[in-house]
């Protein structure tokens, strides 16, 4: 018997599903703080959420080194699924990764350990994809920056609690920096490096 | 002095590779699953999508889903100088691939030269069925075997046609010798 019998399937319709997911992520990046839905669904392995799985199928390929947090990396379902469907190489050194998948936000390593890009190529930074509990309820945050008309409000329960304080390093690093994508089931919110977040408490 | 030489020229010799001729019959005797799958692939790869579909249509197939929907891509073909020398890239070939999983858990893979995604999917389905305990025998009997028969007939015919065009060239020894 083959060993990968438990693998969940990929997109049913590869092209349209990937296009639609790409659109959702692009809209999320263009309008930081807005909650976008990912419609096309693929099977999600282990600790991976549906939205994360769809993003993985859309954005990852053999040219995008991938860093997984401990909980993802120790799940053989996740690593096998990623290898089979995306072919993306999983790296141990987070500073060369194009994407980082975080399922346990509490154990997020220091953001300086990811690739920050260079002044010549600021795009060569790690996009950190963090799975969170909720993007519709929880603490409220105030977001400002390009793509936001005035102020955007975000309600989310996020781990680590000090994520946005940590992201303040983007202010000094610009144009280098870390882009963050938050995923809760099928909801996606992007916090690009230009967005400034103020916590409004609970 | 010119040397006498002989050229035996087979017309259409390039139409089928050498390995195709011998790969079908001997492996069926091995009873391991790997060999069975290999033998099934050797037949299915040379069959048309329509032929496979027509034979599968008559079977009561188990539930299955596409693990990987058919997709097209390129593979680099590598050759070796003189057959065993330094490797070099010969060129790229278009390949379709698919993966199918049966409800019972068997996963089949299909790769096929060209852009016929449906054929790759059917091959993957057959590969999964061959591994299945319940359907392995049935598929072997009603899909693979008839297709193999057909393939052998086709090959024999081509071989006969080829043999009929065999020409022997001789060069006479010229001059005083």
Explain how this protein is built.
The complex is a heterodimer of chains A (202) and B (177). Chain A is an alpha/beta fold. Chain A has a single domain (14-199), classed as Bacterial phosphonate metabolism protein PhnH (Rossmann fold), CATH 3.40.50.11310. In chain A, 25% of the residues lie in helices and 23% in strands. Chain A has six helices and nine strands. Chain A has helices spanning 14-30, 50-59, 70-73, 76-85, 163-166, 169-173, and strands at residues 36-37, 66-68, 99-102, 127-131, 134-144, 152-157, 179-184, 187-191, 196-199. In chain A, the strands form two sheets. Chain A has a six-stranded mixed sheet. A three-stranded antiparallel sheet of chain A has the order 6-5-9, with no helix packed on it. In chain A, helix 1 packs across helix 2. Chain B has 177 residues and is α+β, with helices and mostly antiparallel strands. Chain B has one domain (23-155). Chain B has helices at 18-23, 25-29, 33-44, 49-57, 117-131, 136-164, and strands spanning 6-9, 64-80, 87-102, 107-113, 167-170. In chain B, the strands form two sheets. Chain B has a three-stranded antiparallel sheet with strand order 2-3-4. In chain B, helix 3 packs antiparallel against helix 5 (117-131) and helix 4 packs across helix 5. Chain B is extended. The N and C termini of chain B lie close together (7 Å). The A-B interface holds A 1-2, 4-7, 9-14, 84-85 and B 65-69, 71, 99, 101, 105-107, 131. Chain B: InterPro entries: Phosphonate_metab_PhnG. Chain B: This is Alpha-D-ribose 1-methylphosphonate 5-triphosphate synthase subunit PhnG. Chain B: One of its GO terms (biological process) is organic phosphonate metabolic process. Chain A: This is Alpha-D-ribose 1-methylphosphonate 5-triphosphate synthase subunit PhnH. Chain A: InterPro entries: PhnH-like_sp, Phosphonate_metab_PhnH. Chain A: It comes from Bradyrhizobium huanghuaihaiense.
Set down the secondary structure blueprint:
The complex is a heterodimer of chains A (202) and B (177).
Chain A: H1 14-30, E1 36-37, H2 50-59, E2 66-68, H3 70-73, H4 76-85, E3 99-102, E4 127-131, E5 134-144, E6 152-157, H5 163-166, H6 169-173, E7 179-184, E8 187-191, E9 196-199
Parallel strand pairs in A: 2-3, 3-4, 4-7
Antiparallel strand pairs in A: 1-8, 5-6, 5-9, 7-8
Chain B: E1 6-9, H1 18-23, H2 25-29, H3 33-44, H4 49-57, E2 64-80, E3 87-102, E4 107-113, H5 117-131, H6 136-164, E5 167-170
Antiparallel strand pairs in B: 1-5, 2-3, 3-4
Helix pairs in contact in B: 3-5, 4-5, 4-6, 5-6
């Amino acid at each position: 018997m083959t060993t990968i019998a438990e693998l969940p399937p990929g997109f049913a319709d590869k092209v349209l599903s990937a296009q639609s997911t790409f659109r959702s992520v692009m809209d999320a990046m263009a309008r930081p703080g807005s909650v976008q839905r990912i419609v096309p669904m693929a099977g999600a392995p282990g600790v991976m959420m549906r939205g994360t799985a769809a993003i993985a199928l859309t954005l990852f390929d053999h040219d995008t080194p991938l860093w997984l947090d401990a909980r993802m990396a120790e799940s053989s379902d996740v690593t096998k699924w990623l290898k089979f469907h995306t072919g993306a190489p999983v790296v141990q050194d987070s500073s060369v990764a194009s994407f980082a998948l975080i399922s346990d936000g509490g154990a997020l390593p220091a953001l300086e350990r990811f690739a920050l890009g260079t002044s010549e190529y600021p795009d060569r930074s790690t996009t950190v994809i963090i799975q969170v509990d909720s993007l519709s309820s929880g603490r409220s945050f105030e977001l400002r920056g390009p793509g936001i008309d005035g102020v955007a409000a975000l309600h989310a329960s996020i781990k680590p609690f000090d994520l946005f304080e940590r992201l303040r390093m983007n202010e000094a690093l610009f144009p280098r920096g870390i882009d963050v994508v938050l995923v809760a089931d099928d909801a996606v919110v992007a916090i690009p490096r230009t967005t400034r977040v103020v916590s409004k408490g609970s | 002095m010119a040397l006498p030489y002989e050229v035996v020229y087979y017309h259409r010799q390039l139409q089928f590779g050498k390995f195709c001729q011998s790969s079908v019959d001997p492996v069926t005797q091995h009873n391991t699953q790997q060999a069975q799958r290999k033998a099934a692939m050797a037949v299915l790869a040379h069959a048309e999508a329509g032929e496979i579909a027509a034979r599968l249509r008559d079977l009561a197939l188990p539930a299955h889903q596409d693990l990987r929907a058919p997709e097209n891509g390129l593979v680099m073909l590598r050759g070796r100088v003189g057959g065993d020398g330094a490797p070099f890239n010969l060129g790229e070939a278009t390949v379709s691939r698919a993966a199918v999983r049966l409800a019972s858990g068997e996963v089949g893979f299909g790769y096929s030269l060209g852009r016929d995604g449906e054929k790759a999917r059917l091959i993957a389905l057959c590969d999964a069925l061959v591994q299945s305990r319940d359907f392995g025998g049935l598929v072997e009997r009603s899909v693979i075997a008839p297709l193999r028969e057909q393939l052998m007939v086709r090959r024999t015919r081509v071989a006969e046609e080829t043999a009929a065009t065999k020409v022997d060239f001789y060069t006479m020894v010229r001059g005083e010798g």
